[in-house]
Design goal:
Belongs to the ABC transporter superfamily. The chain is an alpha+beta fold. It is built from 5 helices and 7 strands; from the N terminus they run αβαβαββαβαββ. Helices cover about 35% and strands about 25% of the residues. The model has no long low-confidence stretch (mean pLDDT about 80).
């Protein structure tokens, strides 16, 4: 009930951007679907939506772009399809290198999925 009231308060002024923090917590399956459908409708109407959540399964049904932040640093940013192609993630490492090509070659040879997040810095 608190989630629904908070959402109603957020929407009453017809915002152009909606910031949501753990908004799926405490919702039953029907409430989750209704909430997801509402967010999809808002997005179609041009409302920008930023969601902070640990509910990756629910988010995967909604988002186009994924940004993963760890201890205040962006460790992944990209399209949902790129994120999902990483598969099941148990551990994430930041790898900084001075030899970009050698590092890429080693990671590829070991079949390790990685994403370059900035110059010479990878998420592995």
């Amino acid at each position: 009930m608190k989630q629904r009231l908070g959402l109603a308060q957020a929407l009453i002024h017809q915002p152009t951007i909606l910031l949501l923090d753990e908004s799926f917590n405490g919702l039953d399956p029907i409430g989750m679907k209704e909430f997801r459908d509402l967010l999809i409708e808002l997005s179609k109407k041009g409302v920008g939506i930023v969601i902070s959540s640990h509910s990756l399964e629910e988010l995967s049904k909604l988002v186009d772009t994924v940004t993963i932040i760890n201890q205040g640093k962006v460790i992944f940013q990209g399209k949902k399809t790129e994120f999902l192609s990483l598969g099941s993630i148990k551990n994430v490492w930041l790898l900084k290198t001075d030899n970009l090509e050698l590092t890429k070659s080693i990671l590829n040879n070991l079949n390790i999925v990685f994403s370059e997040i900035s110059k010479n810095v990878f998420v592995v």
